[in-house]
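Appendix B, example 12.
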Amino acid sequence: MAVVHREALRVLRPVLEEAHLDAYSDGPWPPEVLPSYQRALSLAREAVADGTRARRSDPGMGIDIDVRDDEQFAVLSALLPYTIHAEGRRGSEQVFGAGDSGTSLWFVVTREQEAQLLSRLEAQRIASTALAVLPAKGRRAGALRRPG
């Protein structure tokens, strides 16, 4: 269900102001995302070098992702379905969280974003029943539903 993770992230991108990623997975990283994994670790090293990240920080935890930067967004998108933890915020509101190496995903979307996401998933032949939709403060909260 990596497609669901990535499509939800694409729909949320315009409203995301910040995102953080842990470059750890409970299993081996799929070969196709290894360059993104290496780039995530490089971003952490660059942040240490420019003084925006403490030298003592775990090199793979809480890596800041600039979601406006296409390359960094691609790193987040590639690793999101496999990481132990990633999150994104709009201001002080967390609008998505993913973790447990692909088994957990939740997000908050407007009705328009929900329609856009469902359309994108339908184009990928993924049924809307892949998501559980819950009302949340005038928005829609979605969660990935795993087949039983």
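The chain has a mean pLDDT of 89. The radius of gyration is 15 Å.
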